Predict the structure.
Amino acid sequence: MSSIVWNFSAGPAILPKAVLERAQQELLDWQGLGVSVMEISHRSPEFEALVAHMKALLRRLLGLPDTFEILFTTGGGQGQFAFVPMNLLHPEEYADYLITGGWSNRAAREAARFANVHVVADAASNGYTAIPEPSTWSMNAASKYFHYATNETVHGLQFHHVPEVEKPLVADMSSDFLSYPLSFDRFGLIYSASQKNIGPAGLTIVLIRRDWLTNAIRRVPEVFDYKSLASTDSMPNTPATFIWYLSALVFEWLEAQGGVAAMQKKNQRKSSILYEAIDESNLYQNSVEKSTRSQMNVVFDLIKPDLLPRFLEEARGAGLVGLKGHKTRGGVRASLYNAMPEEGVCALIEFMRTFEKKYA
Ligand code: PMP
């Protein structure tokens, strides 16, 4: 195997090398305490200062208005599929759900266990290759919010604009959080699992409009109740301290890179050179409608599908790992999160061209 390894895994995913090196340096002695960050109380002044620092960094990175609260919790993206309706809806109430791929589909299915889900449109009819035309969306006037996934990690579809709907938006940003600047006016709540652009798996971030924190709609376990999370500075119980620390290091790294606007430029460039290489080739194809292609997860197929196992094996030999498509979709998926440098994408393109010459 090649000595340089580029990790295209969809999540848990690549972390900035500088972050891992810093964590390594600080592992045995954090802030001169003589012990690691993993071994101290989450109620210690040092850890509390880290949480404050992390929230300030995140607020700065996102330009998050003061009308929003930042909550750190656990349970991942799928946890929020349940905790959002549990916190925001009475069982007899409605919410609109737009289905554009595997994850928003699961979000709608889970929410339906807790309240009434109105499916606005379902891209299953086009094989999850395009976002259904907004003029075809059937909205429910009684719905309290409109839920969608900004980026479909499995099917490689991404919104490049904020949907224009009347209801407040609730967005699953698990796979494109912190990869572009955002305007928050139309959002009520945004959530993201950590294992793509935030850090290792184990932290879930919820951004919620403060005026949505007032009513505990029904009985929700205290550790997942948004109001209780807000009133305990996100620590109603012991958090995943090491993951929070690593995420803070990623936020610092992100700021040093120029923040989310700089990331957006890099992400646009990385994904466009890869899509170009796919579109030019006679072996690879991406069937997602061009305007909705994901900058985070580039999904493609081989026109000769029999070559797929060989493609993945030879890619691994060339140091290109984590390229296997999701089990529900197959094919190839190259995830190009913030921490993936353009150099890694160029290495993949070069490999793809060589492979095509050899076998196609
Ligand atoms: N939403 C999206 C967009 C995702 O990509 C994922 C995981 N890949 C999830 C939700 C589920 O996240 P988790 O595994 O943290 O529950």
